[in-house]
Amino acid sequence: MRSPTNPFGTVRCAGFTLLEVVLFVLIMMIMMGFLIPAFSGSGSGEELRRTSVDLEKLVRTLRREAVATGTSHRVLITPSGIAEEAALRDGDAEEPVETITLSWPAGSKVRIRSWPSEEWFEPEEWSWVFQPSGLVLPIEFRLDSGEAWIEVAFSPVTGEIVDEKFYLP
């Protein structure tokens, strides 16, 4: 702050100069830049968590459709995402379906493990069939994005997530 008088000897009101205000705002912006990421969580981790929730919704929807319509539904799992491929009715020809898709987060990698295998593998094109009986092949998904990862295992009976492991820094 400056003194309350100027060079002409007149008295001024006390206050801050424009330079002082700009420096204060600049320092506050720098501090917020460091603090906001610390309190908001990991962006890639949050994306992986949202994707696992969306994946569970997709699995439950496809299972419910297979039971309700009496047709098997097949989805294709690829490195870029998962998409419903066809509806199969009692071994007949495949019927086109309204495609339901889910894309993996950008920069993430997906691996799957299906029963009875203990090995994870990266699917190039892997089919997963939902039976009209409601049963689903037990499968586990692992999504990696940087240091963050999430593993989800699906129930063969309900299509719900029965086990979930994660590291979301």
What does this protein look like?
- With about 170 residues, the protein is an alpha+beta fold.
- It folds into two domains: about 1-35; about 45-165, minor pseudopilin epsh fold, CATH 3.55.40.
- The protein has two helices and nine strands.
- The strands form two sheets. Strands 1, 2, 3, 4 and 6 form a five-stranded antiparallel sheet that branches. Strands 5-7-8-9 form a four-stranded antiparallel sheet, covered by helices on one side.
- A hairpin with a 5-residue loop joins strand 2 and strand 3.
- The two termini are about 45 Å apart.
- The model has no long low-confidence stretch (mean pLDDT about 80).
The helix/strand class is alpha+beta
Distance between the termini: 44 Å
- The portion of residues assigned to helices is 25-40%
The CATH architecture of the largest domain comes to: 3-Layer(bab) Sandwich
Oligomer: single chain
Order of helices and strands: HHEEEEEEEEE
Mean pLDDT: 82
Main sheet overview:
5 strands, antiparallel
C-alpha-based Rg, rounded: 28 Å
The CATH topology of the largest domain is given as minor pseudopilin epsh fold
Ranges with pLDDT <50 over ≥5 residues?
Answer: none
Number of helices: 2
Number of domains: 2
Number of strand elements: 9
Strand content: 25-35%
Estimate the global geometry from the Cα principal axes: elongated
- Top-tier CATH class of the largest domain: Alpha Beta
Q: Which superfamily, in CATH terms, is the homologous superfamily of the largest domain?
A: minor pseudopilin epsh domain
